[in-house]
Design a protein that fits this description.
The protein is built from 17 helices and 10 strands. Strand 6, helix 10 and strand 7 form a beta-alpha-beta unit.
Length: 431
């Protein structure tokens, strides 16, 4: 390195690597999901209304997942190589779209590629649920194992570049946005990357960001390849990116934006031909350090994040069950209506679903913020010939969820607290 005081990515990873005991919390969450949440999911057809929503036991035990998104050639694969400090199996880098598949970069005892079909067949794999997306997707999915230190505690997901060309998008034989939603719901961090030299947000990227609105707390933005931009240009690029993100995400606060040059050239190399100041270089090094430290701190942060995910899931399932219950009750009141007219009445009920959402929220004291996407639910409801095919609501199952939220989860967290002993060592309480 040209600057003896600078730290490269690999050194930062090694310096801050930690080993954490999360087993008790994850096992408890898994058991609570199976006992308290899953019965109501199955009774209310929750998974029918949201493809890929089924949770497996492995979803609770898996290492934190970091999902990388961005248009092609923004440097997603190079970013992973910079974090690992070396190439990983199956890696391809180029100026045109080169990563044409989803790659799960995972810890392993050797360096090899695992086909997607094999990964999805393993019941203890966090990717077991991807089998429901079929062969068209699984042939475009694989795992890459590596001995890199960072992967001891996290798994990285490299994705195909988001395309701007409609013809190319139509060439995909699988539902790209559905796959992204599946990964996003299970990811602990979502890094959306932008190239500082081309900030345009394509229609497909805008659509993807739209689907991530429920995961704002996980999203981080990485403005990449800022190596050869001077301070004035960087301010303009940063401002333009913030404005664009504000328009697309439509949230009060834009996610944290990191800046860096995670690609072939390091900031300190002699070939970089810097046109910016040393202060600028130091800023980028600090930004890089902050991002790496957030990544390696994920295992500790993941505990509370997964608790929050289960709470969100439980609230969503409860609201879904009451929506279906409300709609069934409206149909049950049509005892004197003919079969033909019932079909028409059900159609009218679904067409006015947005109004029925409000009525259901008022009737059962439900927060509208927990309600699902109205248009998507309309689409799924129209596939059901008679809504009374869905079983009646068993309110004992609702009470189970409420008990989990108010008693079981707080008790689990209290029982898993790590306390310090007299000698300063950490002791996990065993209840």
């Amino acid at each position: 390195s040209g600057d003896p005081q600078s730290e490269n990515v690999l050194q930062l990873v090694n310096k801050t690597q930690t080993s954490l005991d999360k087993d008790k919390v994850f096992e408890g969450l898994r058991n609570l999901y199976i006992k308290r949440v899953k019965p109501l999911e199955e009774a209310s057809w929750y998974s029918f209304f949201s493809k890929g929503s089924t949770l497996e036991a492995s979803d609770f035990d898996a290492k934190p997942i970091v999902l990388l998104l961005g248009q092609y050639s923004v440097g997603k694969t190079s970013f992973i190589r910079a974090l690992l400090g070396k190439d990983f199996p199956g890696m391809r880098i180029g100026p045109e779209p080169t990563t044409d598949q989803f790659v799960a970069v995972m810890a392993g005892n050797d360096e090899r590629v695992i086909p997607g079909h094999a990964l999805s067949m393993q019941k203890d794999s966090p990717f077991h649920g991807l089998a429901e997306f079929g062969n068209a997707f699984l042939s475009r999915f694989c795992g890459a194992t590596s001995t890199a230190p960072l992967l001891r505690n996290i798994t990285l997901i490299d994705t195909p570049g988001v395309l701007s060309n409609k013809k190319h998008r139509e060439g995909r034989e699988y539902e790209f946005s559905s796959i992204i939603e599946w990964f996003a719901s299970r990811a602990d961090l979502i890094i959306v990357m932008f190239d500082a030299h081309k900030l345009d947000i394509s229609d497909e990227l805008q659509s993807i960001l739209d689907k991530l609105r429920g995961h704002q707390d996980k999203i981080r933005i990485l403005l990449n390849k800022v190596q050869q931009i001077d301070t004035q240009q960087l301010l303009r690029v940063y401002g333009a990116l913030m404005w664009s993100l504000g328009e697309v995400l439509r949230t009060p606060e834009v996610p944290r934006v990191f800046m860096g040059s995670f690609w072939d050239e390091e900031e300190s190399t002699a070939t970089a031909e810097w046109v910016n100041s040393n202060a600028h270089a130091l800023l980028l090094q600090r930004e890089k350090a902050d991002l790496v430290q957030e990544l390696v701190a994920l295992p500790q942060n993941t505990i509370l994040r997964r608790v929050s995910s289960l709470v969100r899931r439980a609230r969503s399932v409860k609201v879904h069950a009451f929506i279906v219950h409300y709609l069934r009750k409206q149909i049950a009141g049509w005892a004197t209506v003919t079969v033909w007219n019932k079909a028409e009445k059900q159609k009218d009920l679904i067409d006015a679903l947005d109004r029925n959402f409000v009525l259901a929220a008022q009737r059962y004291n439900l927060p509208l913020g927990d309600f699902p996407n109205c248009e998507r639910m309309k689409t799924k409801l129209r596939e059901i010939k008679d809504l009374r095919e869905i079983p009646r609501l068993n309110k004992n199952l609702v009470y189970d969820i409420e008990r989990m939220l108010t008693k079981d989860i707080p008790q689990l967290l209290d029982s898993a607290v790590i306390r310090s002993g007299a000698d300063g060592r950490r002791i996990r309480t065993l209840d």
